[in-house]
Amino acid sequence: MRDVADGQRLRSALRLIAERFDVTFLITAQQDVLISGISGDDREAIAHLLVTHHVRAVEELGLVERSALACPALPTCGQAWPKPNVDCPTLLNRCRTR
Q1: How many CA atoms does the CB half-sphere of 41 hold within 13 Å?
Q2: Fewest CB within 10 angstroms: 30, 31, 40, 61, which?
Q3: With contact defined as beta carbons under 8 Å apart, do 31 and 69 qualify?
């Protein structure tokens, strides 16, 4: 998980959420990050923080993006990508524009 220059700053957003709010983070088998235990009073502030860090909501993602995985298991897996954090978004952008 990382911040992208001139783009989504997911890492920074999650760090700020962890520092400012009493929430729990869950990571799913699909590599999704869920924020759980958000109080009603904090929901709007967290949503605003994610928007200002350019983190897209699940409703904004296409079907391919929702289920895409970037596996960094090289060299143990022959199907792994050498640069998953770079190649996966590039490939998804190409699929979306076609």
Answers
A1: 3
A2: 40
A3: yes
More confident residue, 69 or 56: 56
User: In which residue are the tokens 């979306």 written?
Assistant: 96
CA distance 83 to 53: 23
Q: For residue 93, is pLDDT > 80? A: no
Q: Choose among 75, 67, 66, 71: nearest CA to 84.
A: 71
Its pTM stands at 0.70
* Residue corresponding to tokens 């904004």: 60
Nearest C-alpha neighbor of 88 from the set 77, 74, 72: 72
